[in-house]
Amino acid sequence: xxxxxxxxxxxxxxxxxxxxxxxxxxxxxxxxxxxxxxxxxxxxxxxxxxxxxxxxxxxxxxxxxxxxxxxxxxxxxxxxxxxxxxxxxxxxxxxxxxxxxxxxxxxxxxxxxxxxxxxxxxxxxxxxxxxxxxxxxxxxxxxxxxxxxxxxxxxxxxxxxxxxxxxxxxxxxxxxxxxxxxxxxxxxxxxxxxxxxxxxxxxxxxxxxxxxxxxxxxxxxxxxxxxxxxxxxxxxxxxxxxxxxxxxxxxxxxxxxxxxxxxxxxxxxxxxxxxxxxxxxxxxxxxxxxxxxxxxxxxxxxxxxxxxxxxxxxxxxxxxxxxxxxxxxxxxxxxxxxxxxxxxxxxxxxxxxxxxxxxxxxxxxxxxxxxxxxxxxxxxxxxxxxxxxxxxxxxxxxxxxxxxxxxxxxxxxxxxxxxxxxxxxxxxxxxxxxxxxxxxxxxxxxxxxxxxxxxxxxxxxxxxxxxxxxxxxxxxxxxxxxxxxxxxxxxxxxxxxxxxxxxxxxxxxxxx
Amino acid sequence: xxxxxxxxxxxxxxxxxxxxxxxxxxxxxxxxxxxxxxxxxxxxxxxxxxxxxxxxxxxxxxxxxxxxxxxxxxxxxxxxxxxxxxxxxxxxxxxxxxxxxxxxxxxxxxxxxxxxxxxxxxxxxxxxxxxxxxxxxxxxxxxxxxxxxxxxxxxxxxxxxxxxxxxxxxxxxxxxxxxxxxxxxxxxxxxxxxx
Lengths: 512, 195
Description:
Chain A has helices at about 5-15, 15-35, 40-50, 55-80, 90-100, 105-140, 145-160, 165-180, 205-225, 245-265, 270-285, 295-315, 315-320, 325-340, 345-350, 350-385, 390-405, 410-430, 435-455, 465, 470-510, and strands at about 185, 190. By secondary structure, chain A is an all-alpha fold. Chain A has one domain (about 5-485). A two-stranded antiparallel sheet of chain A has the order 1-2. Chain B folds into three domains: about 1-50, no CATH class; about 55-110; about 125-185, no CATH class. Helices cover about 60% and strands about 0% of the residues of chain B. Chain B is built from seven helices and no strands. The longest helix of chain B has 25 residues, at about 55-80. Classes of the chains: A mainly alpha, B mainly alpha. At the A-B interface, helix 5, helix 8, helix 9, helix 17 and helix 18 of A face helix 1, helix 2, helix 3, helix 4 and helix 5 of B.
């Protein structure tokens, strides 16, 4: 097998001192921004995108993976200390994490979360290393019709799995698709939705949109609803979990890793479902389930391991198919595109050093996270003690000046503000921002492949259904659309029937 | 529940309060109330701003429906072409149609879902914040970034964050200096600057 050669070469690149340094900076800054209340991983990575600009591609990717893991852990810190999950996937961590914090064992919770995250992440990367080339090989035969179906299914799944209203999520996704069409049409050269503006004729950039909707939108939203009801503790002691804690949670970490890896491959809420499932599983297996919710160490270890494993394995659809599975992956996708890396099945074949560079940087990011998180917990606690009122203007300025530095363009700052307001309004009106950004990222790919397929089929859309893979994918698409409607109908008819049968039952009782 | 967490009581010294659910479980020395999912969800609900009524959904639906209709009109003017030879307007037309149809569906079926939040007086703070951002961009091209940075930080600290005058003046000066040192001196980013 000559797959190990490139893997090892990739390590050589990753382990260069400069790259290690950038990864370290990424982890620390990722955690720093990630602990700011209300900013989840997607927002954190969006705000920090400009940092990766001026650097070489491989270094930038390594830094990005550091930011990714740092941001992920930042959300855990706020879950445990402030009862404020950074994103849906660390909601369950709050139950036992916050309970532990109130017993003065916040350090234990954070330590076990870091160890579990490292473990889950590592298991997932090993799985990814083995599985990714196979999936990519399978996907090499994909043509435009398959990509069309895959992109549509990906957008639909992310829109329907998100916790908001499904109709609203799909509307948000179609706004994202429309935004992706702004600019000159690649096929005919005609300008679309530019309103005569020269700045718009090249299309909208991904970075101002992501930074506006996720970053600034989130900051504006928090401005209204201050989260400083819960005070962070002044000091966190005993960050190293005791041997007893480790023993108690080792099973949870092992099971969480495997569960997280498999659930993470699924598009949509992989990490969220994984954390919930891992928590439920541990609670079921436990001898005293009533300990859960009152500070059980496994209650932190299981979901944190599973969500990191899932977050890592959701790189598989991104790197092998070029389809981001969730909003965070959409941002990573955009960031990779900026670096000249087009994730997809060709990546392993054409650019093995880049592909393995990305994968191996994840090993390093994960290790650095483990090394940095435990000693730095004290620093983060201090940051959490700073009032949100002071942090807000600083993050806003980082966002505005950061986006300017990318193209030295004032127009980009205007875009960030416009999309920041849009992101804020979307949150207020119950629209999920994730599907919009994801659809924007996939928009041009989807349109290009759709038009290519139509050319291929001579304009006959039936061609999509007759090709086996695209046909199956479209069938899945239909199932995802129709299943909830069917369920609703069944529920309704059942409710009607039970209303009708109710009197009968009473009669039966009387006769008995 | 909320009252205890709002106090500045440090960890471990959890004030004795009605720990209703703890019951007989003496696993932990500290009486910690169980945080069940339902309780936590209820608490988060409490902390959230009040729901906006169905009107918010109607407004959102009308806006997205109008966007969809405008998209359809503009796509038609770009030219649709045929399925064999699609033109620039074909794809935007399809999306705009989906958007318009779903907006109507939202207006018909989704009105009663209470997932929108009502605007309150604190929403004015957001409007003021956006105002300062617009001011920031207008001024940055004229005077460089130092003065707008100082003013924006000061405004956010003093008026949006309700910090004291002294704190606001001191901190905004420090923040501006830090940004100058980071972006101009250390990273030499070509951002317009005075000095």
